[in-house]
Amino acid sequence: MTIMCQLLGMNCATPTDITFSFSGFAERGGRTDHHADGWGIAFFEDKGCRLFIDHESAVTSPIAQLVKNYPIKSRNVIAHIRKATQGAVELENCHPFMRELWGRHWIFAHNGTLKDYNPPLNGLYQPVGTTDSEQAFCFLMQGLRARFDRQAPADLGQVFEVLLELVPGIKRHGEFNFLLSNGQGLLAHCTSKLWYVVRGWPFREAHLADMDMSIDFSQSTMPQDRVAVIATQPLTDNEEWTQFESGELILFEKGLPTRKAVTGRA
Questions:
Q1: Which residues are part of the catalytic machinery?
Q2: Which region, left, alpha or beta, applies to residue 48 given φ > 0 means left and ψ of -120 to 50 means alpha?
Q3: Pick from 147, 58, 72, 139: nearest CA to 106
Q4: How far apart, in whole angstroms, are the C-alpha atoms of residue 213 and residue 206?
Q5: Which residues are registered as beta bridge partners of 198?
Q6: Which of 29, 168, 172, 195 is 20 to 30 Å from 59 by CA-CA measure?
């Protein structure tokens, strides 16, 4: 088993709930895997964002139980279950992390360990906790703000280009698998392990790998619906998941991967 944390993301064409995928994902927070050092999930609703974090395991947390039973509909979701490698098991070290930029919430979650990582932070963004992950997030936010200053980029395609420049300097310190969103789309980068599946019309039945639960998506979807689910390990055992290349950065918009590139070395 890997000692790293695990990531879960969802990007959709229409607002969709993640209760099915999260139910399986949460099992890895202490039952089918050992990522029991906290968890969190963020749901975008237009420019608003609901963020739930807990230092309890996703298996035992009453807040996680609420999320499983509360079908919050969103176009972009980021979730994380933690296996602590840097930073104590405390609330401030739980992912996802949130910051504001250009009048929008930005959400970030990372798995892996960055060794000897002390990025130059100028004070605009500072970590609250003690994780390498939050340091990397602050550095990315600082870099984006420096590039565009007060004028927000036209779209996430421009953010994608800046990440291609910023990510190599971070990933030379270790594993840097991450998910990043501002509610307009979802960016995912893989150093070691990350997979995605796109569900579209006509939808079919899916079965979770971590528990005996199935759902027939064709019973509750329309032709315009489309969903991309991104995870450290495939969540279902009867769907065709696509594995990221090492170093691959993908932008997901409206349930589809719209841009792909492989980050270089610093």
A1: 5
A2: beta
A3: 139
A4: 8
A5: 228
A6: 195
Nearest to 53 by CA among 30, 82, 19, 24: 82
Phi, then psi, of 72 in degrees rounded to 5: -70, 125
The runs of H, that is alpha helices, within the chain are 19-27, 62-69, 132-148, 156-171
Q: For 6-262, give the CATH class.
A: alpha beta
Task: Identify the residue whose tokens are 């009048």.
Answer: 103
Which are the contacts of 165, defined by CB distance < 8 A and separation ≥ 6? none
The reply to whether omega before 202 is within 30° of 0 (cis) is: yes
Whole-number Å distance between alpha carbons of 99 and 141: 8
Domains of the chain, by residue range, sit at 6-262
Q: Is the pTM of this model over 0.90?
A: yes
Q: How would DSSP label each residue in 120-172?
A: ---SSS--SSS-HHHHHHHHHHHHHHHHHTTS--SSHHHHHHHHHHHHHHHHT
136 token code pair: 């990397």
Q: What angle do CA 49, 213, 65 make, to 5 degrees?
A: 40
- Digitized pLDDT (tens) for each residue of the chain, 266 residues in all: 345 689 999 999 999 999 999 999 988 865 655 455 789 999 999 899 999 999 888 788 899 899 999 999 999 999 999 665 555 557 889 999 999 999 999 999 999 999 999 999 999 999 999 999 999 999 999 999 999 977 888 899 999 999 999 999 999 999 999 999 999 999 999 999 999 999 999 999 999 998 999 999 999 899 999 999 999 999 999 999 999 999 999 999 999 999 999 998 54
Contact 141, 125 (CB under 8 A): yes
